[in-house]
Amino acid sequence: MDDKNIDRVPSLSLAFVGDAVYAVYMRKHLVERYPYLKPDDLHRKANKLVSARAQAAALHHLKNEGHLTDEEWEIAKKARNKSSATRAKNATIKEYRNASGLEALIGRLDLSGNTERVEALMQEIIEWSEADE
User: Where is the active site (predicted)?
Assistant: First the structure.
């Protein structure tokens, strides 16, 4: 999708795509790292990594460690501020909104064909999340 058309996609629609992209990256990573785990155990690990709380922490990490460009941070902030007042079961409204910001950023990068950048950000998130275990 070109920049002109992607600018017309609402932030929460970008988050819709980004949520799926994020989940696929995390699930692939888990299968590669833990090929011996049963699907139920993989599912539990995946739920921890793709939760709103984990995604909000990942956005915070990317921002604070200088892994985001100014433009990427603006995309995340815009989506974060447009997120609805509803929240995930196990997250605060702030965490839910920050998670939406990260998802929108990943969705925008993916839809614009910037797979190298998606890969770099997801790899950073994975390495960071593993260091936290």
Answer: 19
Q: In this structure, what token pair is assigned to residue 122?
A: 């997801």
Distance, CA of 5 to CA of 42 (rounded, Å): 37
Q: pLDDT of 83-104, one tens digit each?
A: 665 656 778 888 989 999 999 9
- pLDDT tens string 67-85: 999 999 999 999 887 766 5
Annotated active-site residue 19? The verdict is: yes
pLDDT tens, position by position, 36-63: 999 999 999 999 999 999 999 999 999 9
- Cβ atoms of residues 83 and 97 within 8 Å: yes
Find, among 46, 55, 52, 50, the residue nearest to 27 by Cα.
46
3-state secondary structure 37-79: CCHHHHHHHHHHHCCHHHHHHHHHHHHHCCCCCHHHHHHHHHH
Q: Which amino acid is at 126?
A: I
Closest CA to 83 of 5, 7, 6, 14: 14
Annotated active-site residue in 3, 7, 19, 132:
19
